[in-house]
Prior knowledge:
This protein is an all-beta fold. The chain has one helix and 29 strands. The chain has a single domain, classed as TolB, C-terminal domain (Neuraminidase).
Amino acid sequence: MSGSCSRRTLLLQGAAVFTAAAAPAPNRAAAPAVPADGGSGDGEILGQGNFRYRAHRLWGRLDHRKYPVKDCHGISGDRTGRIVLLTNDTHNNLIAYTTAGGLLRAWENRFPGAHGFDVVDHEGKDQYWITDHTRRLVSVCDPDGRELLHVGPEAVKSKYPDLSSYRPTNTATLPDGDFFVSDGYGSSFVHHFDPQGRYISSFGGKGDAPENLDIPHSVWIDRRSGKPLLLVCDRGHNALKWFSLRGEFLRSMDFGPLEIDDEPVAALPCNVAPFHGYRGGQFDDHLAIACLAGMVLILDGADRVVSAIGGMPPVYLDGKLQQPENFNYTFNHPHDLYVDSAGAIYVAQWGSNRTYPIKLEAL
């Protein structure tokens, strides 16, 4: 997410949030930013069942005068074992850490609207896929910043009479080189491109039908069933939605209304990360979902919430998930996340006082 806004505006509005001026207020259900005893809250135990974590709030902390961040929008791991952060501060759009939180490198200054970040293994080499909603582009770079592919707004000019309504937020790639781009801060379409960045088709768009989208914040290829599907974090509808690779709506998972009795409540799913290799691979069909309303939700292979990290234990009544409720000292606005093979979760946050990433250590 970009910009800052009131909590109510954040929950109830769409693209207009990016021009709001007030700072975000705390979650209705959230604990204070620090404990009442004045401590840092570092080391808080969060989550339930097989997914309990100790939070390390100071894990990614650096000297902000040398390595500033505005919003920690994206985070991922690369082939070398580095944890790489994407921030929209052009002093250092990319910051690489060790898993222990040590600084390895800070570089890049080309992406004022840096938002979406994925590390893709392409023929044994890392590609950094960076989506910039301010410049309205997708830039594919090698780890040293050499640009390999540039897909600007002109690629969708046949779809948009006014290119100012195109503000891409994230990408998802296929093995054949095709990729999808979510227009999360623009017109709420998901676009399909070929490996050269040529436009193929679109689906979604604003509306209230199941196949419509409202702030498709991120897209991710879900391969858990053996048949690849496109999973969309439909933040404006407070839902996850699955589509075929042709854009056919298949199913959704609803996290409840955005307000109850005129009070804002939500999960606001933003980004997805899989588990790979954790505890011998027994959780490889599980997903972690970064939720802007102050928590991380863990889904099992049947897409049931089995842990609310930073929230009250998940409750199902008659098979239906009840409204997730956050309560923690650790999170403000989780925006993206990455899970390593030890089950540790690294969380990047938007609108959180320019703080650095948080590490969740698996217990």
